[in-house]
């Protein structure tokens, strides 16, 4: 998986991390703030984004993953959003929202049923999903994966990720008004992948899509399962004991920024990894998947 274009602010020396890596606020926004941010962004998009209808409690009750009240409060008002395509219609294939067809797949790389909710998929074979604790019903961080053994920690919570996307919509609308792009769908595509405008008033938007991120690589924040088992950290040792030797273990405790993760290409892993989360979504594990 290619690394995002942006400003690398840290390459971890391995867990435990000294201090915190901040990009998002440590306090997630309230449902009211999320809804207001999305509505404001849609209004600023000049018709380039359409908000999806809210979702009923009965529909959410049927989801495999339990839904906490703060997520319900957002989903009741807004089910997500979709960019408007060249034909003037919402591009539902590129939509961001709670109801994605990949949630119905019985065998998913995101983990066992009930431990995740897919939020976005696209033509680049990317999947964005939120970690779910099926026992407590809590929703934690947002992750993404590609056709690869690597992954990305997108945001520490779904509300923060949604507000981040709302900010991207507003920035994209500004880039369209500045002449950098003809349509918001095109601008948002570049913002989402952190690539700079190639036309128009590019200098004014030189940093518009750059975002700080942390990069974790083998030996620098990524360890294998045997090393986790041997760790003096009881959390890592417990996680390592549940994984095969070829698994990679990534400690995201203390990180609050967009994080690119390069896992270990171990024998037995294959060309694609499956991903499991532990310890409130703060320990990520890449395991064999086929």
Estimate the helix proportion, in percent. Answer: 10-25%
| SS class | alpha+beta
Stretches where pLDDT is under 50 for at least 5 consecutive residues are 1-20
Strand content: 25-35%
**Span between N and C termini?**
18 Å
Count of runs of 4 or more consecutive helical residues: 7
Shape: globular
Biggest beta sheet attributes: 11 strands, mixed
> Can you count the beta strands?
16
Query: What does the average pLDDT come to?
Result: 88
Evaluate the radius of gyration: 19 Å
What is the H/E string?
EEHEHHEEEEEEHHEEHHEEEEE
Jot down its keywords.
290 residues; eleven-stranded mixed sheet; disordered N terminus; 7 helices; alpha+beta; single chain
Quick structural summary:
With 290 residues, the chain is of the alpha+beta class. It has helices at 31-44, 57-61, 69-77, 158-177, 184-192, 225-229, 234-240, and strands spanning 7-11, 21-22, 49-52, 80-83, 96-97, 116-121, 127-132, 139-145, 151-155, 212-218, 221-224, 248-251, 255-256, 258-261, 273-278, 283-288.
What does this structure look like?
This protein is an alpha+beta fold and 290 residues long. It has 7 helices and 16 strands. It has helices spanning 31-44, 57-61, 69-77, 158-177, 184-192, 225-229, 234-240, and strands at residues 7-11, 21-22, 49-52, 80-83, 96-97, 116-121, 127-132, 139-145, 151-155, 212-218, 221-224, 248-251, 255-256, 258-261, 273-278, 283-288. The strands form 3 sheets. Strands 1, 6, 7, 8, 9, 10, 11, 12, 14, 15 and 16 form an 11-stranded mixed sheet that branches. The chain has a 3-stranded antiparallel sheet with strand order 3-4-5. Strands 2-13 form a two-stranded parallel sheet. Helix 1 (31-44) packs parallel to helix 3, helix 1 packs parallel to helix 4 and helix 4 (158-177) crosses helix 5 (184-192). It is globular, with a radius of gyration of 19 Å.
């Amino acid at each position: 998986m290619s690394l995002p274009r942006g400003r690398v602010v840290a390459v971890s020396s391995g867990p435990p991390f000294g201090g915190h890596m901040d990009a998002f606020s440590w306090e997630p926004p309230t449902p009211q703030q999320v809804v207001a941010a999305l509505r404001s962004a849609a209004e600023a998009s000049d018709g380039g984004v359409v908000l999806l209808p809210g979702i009923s409690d009965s529909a959410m009750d049927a989801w495999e993953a339990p839904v906490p009240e703060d997520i319900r409060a957002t989903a009741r008002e807004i089910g997500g959003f979709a960019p408007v395509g060249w034909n003037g219609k919402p591009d539902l294939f590129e939509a961001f929202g709670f109801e994605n067809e990949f949630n119905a797949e019985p065998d998913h790389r995101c983990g066992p049923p009930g431990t995740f909710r897919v939020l976005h998929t696209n033509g680049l074979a990317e999947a964005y999903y939120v970690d779910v604790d099926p026992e407590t019903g809590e929703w934690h961080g947002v992750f993404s994966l590609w056709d690869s053994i690597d992954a990305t920690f997108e945001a520490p919570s779904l509300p923060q990720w949604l507000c981040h996307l709302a900010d991207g919509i507003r920035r994209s609308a500004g880039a369209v008004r500045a002449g950098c792009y003809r349509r918001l769908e095109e601008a948002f595509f570049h913002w989402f992948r952190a690539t700079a405008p190639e036309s128009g008033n590019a200098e004014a938007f030189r940093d518009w899509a750059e975002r700080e991120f942390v990069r974790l690589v083998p030996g620098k924040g990524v360890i294998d399962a045997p090393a986790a088992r041997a760790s003096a950290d009881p959390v890592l040792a417990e996680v390592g004991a549940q994984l095969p030797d070829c698994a990679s273990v990534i400690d995201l405790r203390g990180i609050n920024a967009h994080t690119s993760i390069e896992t270990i290409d171990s024998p037995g892993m294959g060309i694609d990894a499956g991903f499991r989360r532990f310890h409130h979504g703060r320990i990520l594990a890449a395991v064999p998947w086929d």
